[in-house]
Amino acid sequence: VQLYGAHRDCVSIVPAGVDLGRFCPGDRTQAKRDLNLGEELLVLFVGRIEPLKGVDILIQALAVTELDQPLTAIVAGGDAASADIAELRELAEAVGVADRVRFVGTLPRAELPTYYRAADVCVMPSYYESFGLVAVEALACGTPVIATRVGGLQHTVQDGRTGYLLSWRCPEPFAERIEALLENEDIRRRFGEAAPESVRRFSWDRVSAQILEVYEDLLQRHASGLATGCPAG
What pLDDT, in 10s, does the model give residues 156-180? Predict the structure, then answer.
């Protein structure tokens, strides 16, 4: 409406959908065992490996995070042999967290729910996200999300209820929120319990019904001669 002069009555908004039968809560302890992890706290990043995703912010945040329990970060995405991951490995080495960051490459989709369930928090320090499907998948699995307040993340992560939204794209605020969440098991539990219901509206049943409504409305407009009834410009 703002950029292209579209008429509001001619715009339908339908979100992306998520298979809530696959992405759903599970036993976190068992998920960690399935991934050969110990009892350490786990921070998870899932996504493409490129500067836009802000993985460097996460790595630097780990360097200034102070917790009593051991903390491991898993970075899922990209090619383990790529130049981008090589740079991130060098950064992790430089800030002293190389032993706490695991790069597992791009995961088969069937394995993603196990990683989400194993994680104590999913972090998305993106500079921009059009929608941010990873956040919805993580929340559907009962995992709180800490993300930047950009794009679709503003509409999927409920600040202070299912995770935290940050307006600052720098390591310290992310470190503070990671500490706040991981040091308080009660908050983590409450966020995790609220998370699945908060994304119920993204189920494929609901999303496909909305898509069907758009087509039915268009057919009705066509039948009544209103297919071109939207104001031009």
Answer: 999 999 999 999 889 999 999 999 9
pLDDT of 230 reads: 64
**Bridge partner list, 45:** 75
Q: Burial level of 27, CB count in 10 A (0-12/13-18/19+)?
A: exposed
Mean pLDDT of 86-96: 97
